[in-house]
Design a protein that fits this description.
single chain, mainly alpha, 11 helices, extended
Length: 227
């Protein structure tokens, strides 16, 4: 079966793509929250913003994208379809605020405003700045020339990973780390049974790998070589 592409007008996207009406905005908001939390963690370790951004790898981005999508709630997707059929549009018109009245900051953006203002910024970040940051990419239309230029641009694999090879963690050290994380999470009130079961599964797997590695050693491995 052949696939035939159709090019739609920009004004039709909101009608035929309900994801554009709220789901993608929620997804981008979740991703940016994860990005800001990572920056704040690096700042607490003494790094600057520029150095912290350089440490972000493609692997980090992939995990953050997955986490951002997992945090999109079902009712958010359901509301997008309600907008598509005009169910929610009528209720919004009944409760719409006057045009001259400033729009209040959405509750979903308040956390982003708070996180941004913990960064070393020159001026306080406002709700309008956050909205522009989330939706700013929608105004950046990609022309054919820009797309061709992006495809012809050589890839720079050197920036995918930070400098220096990652040191391999032994099974013994990994087991000790997981046991510490398990003890910490067990003390948290927000921890769920699934969290503990998942960590205990990895704890048992690390213990099994450690025991298997030790059983492969011979008695001579425990004695130093004589000169």
């Amino acid at each position: 079966m052949a696939l035939e592409p159709y090019f739609c007008l920009q004004t039709l996207l909101a009608l035929i793509q309900p994801l554009d009406q709220g789901v993608l905005e929620t997804f981008k908001r979740n991703y940016k929250k994860r990005l800001l939390r990572n920056l704040l963690e690096k700042l607490e370790d003494g790094l600057g913003v520029t150095d912290a951004l350089k440490l972000i790898t493609m692997k980090d981005v992939v995990y953050w994208v997955s986490e951002a999508w997992d945090n999109v709630r079902e009712d958010t997707i359901r509301r997008s379809w309600r907008k598509l059929f005009g169910i929610e549009k009528a209720s919004r018109q009944e409760t719409a605020a006057p045009e001259n009245q400033p729009r209040a900051c959405p509750p979903e953006n308040e956390e982003l405003v708070n996180l941004c203002n913990h960064l070393p910024v020159a001026e306080p970040i406002s709700a309008e700045d956050i909205s522009e940051w989330i939706n700013g990419d929608e105004d950046q239309a990609l022309t054919d020339d820009v797309i061709i230029q992006m495809l012809n641009q050589p890839e720079d694999d050197d920036n995918d990973e930070p400098d220096g090879a990652t040191e391999k963690i032994s099974h013994t050290e990994g087991l000790r780390t997981i046991e510490g994380a398990l003890a910490y999470i067990e003390q948290q009130e927000t921890a769920t049974t699934n969290d503990l079961v998942w960590l205990r599964r990895w704890r048992n797997r690390a213990a099994s790998l450690r025991s298997s590695n030790l059983s492969q050693k011979t008695i001579t491995d425990f004695f130093g070589k004589k000169d």
